[in-house]
């Protein structure tokens, strides 16, 4: 059963700003993330080591440092901003793809990367999206579907789509450096 939070002060805040290179979108915070008030805080989650391994961050960040991602052109959000838990524990009515689309129109990131196939399917309106870069843009953003970093999804783990998203960001960073 989903664990709902009725007070917004208990929700993880979006980490968004105009023109980011890449925004990561999960389904909802895990209980560990909710308790820590930090994204991807479960010790078994591969999110933070993967960001560093694929070159998106200069070092491995602890979850509590999530706000520093903005300085690297990266953002964070979740499709479900009112509940806590694994995909199978969440309510269908709390999945807010409409709100995510509005955020993409408002902030205009270059790309969005879903860290959950479930979140990707709901946001993209596709039953079973494949991993990697998607053919269609989502509100003007390039869309990537990544293998879930959750320890519970380890049997589906592949680094390849993460590398593809990181290569997209690296190219944007190179273009900015050449233009400067």
Main attributes of the structure:
about 15% strand, single chain, five-stranded mixed beta sheet, about 180 residues, 5 helices, alpha/beta
Q: Could you explain the architecture of this structure?
A:
- The chain contains five helices and seven strands.
- Strand 6 and strand 7 form a beta hairpin.
- The termini are far apart.
- The protein is of the alpha/beta class.
- A five-stranded mixed beta sheet has the order 3-2-5-7-6. Strands 1-4 form a two-stranded antiparallel sheet.
- 37% of the residues are buried.
- 29% of the residues lie in helices and 13% in strands.
Helical proportion, percent range? 25-40%
Task: Please outline the major beta sheet.
Answer: 5 strands, mixed
Q: Supply the number of helical segments.
A: 5
Strand order of the largest sheet: 3-2-5-7-6
The general outline is globular
What's the overall average pLDDT, rounded?
Answer: 91
Strand content: 5-15%
**Low-confidence stretches at least 5 residues in length (pLDDT < 50)?**
5-9
From N to C, what is the helix and strand string? Answer: EEHHEEHEHEEH
Instruction: Kindly state the number of beta strands.
Output: 7
Over all CA atoms, what is the radius of gyration?
Answer: 15 Å
| Sheet/helix structural class | alpha/beta
């Amino acid at each position: 059963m989903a664990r709902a939070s009725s007070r917004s002060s208990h929700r993880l805040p979006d980490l968004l700003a105009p023109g980011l290179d890449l925004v990561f979108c999960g389904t909802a915070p895990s209980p560990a993330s909710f308790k820590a008030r930090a994204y991807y805080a479960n010790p078994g989650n591969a999110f933070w080591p993967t960001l560093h391994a694929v070159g998106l961050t200069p070092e491995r960040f602890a979850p509590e440092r999530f706000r520093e991602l903005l300085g690297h052109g990266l953002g964070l959000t979740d499709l479900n901003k009112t509940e806590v838990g694994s995909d199978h524990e969440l309510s269908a009515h709390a999945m807010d793809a409409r709100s995510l689309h509005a955020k993409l129109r408002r902030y205009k990131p270059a790309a969005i990367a879903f860290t959950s196939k479930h979140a990707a399917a709901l946001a993209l309106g596709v039953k079973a999206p494949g991993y990697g870069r998607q053919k269609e843009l989502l509100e003007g953003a390039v869309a990537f579907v990544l293998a879930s970093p959750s320890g519970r999804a380890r049997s589906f783990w592949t680094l390849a789509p993460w590398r593809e998203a990181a290569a997209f960001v690296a190219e944007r960073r190179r273009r900015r450096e050449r233009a400067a």
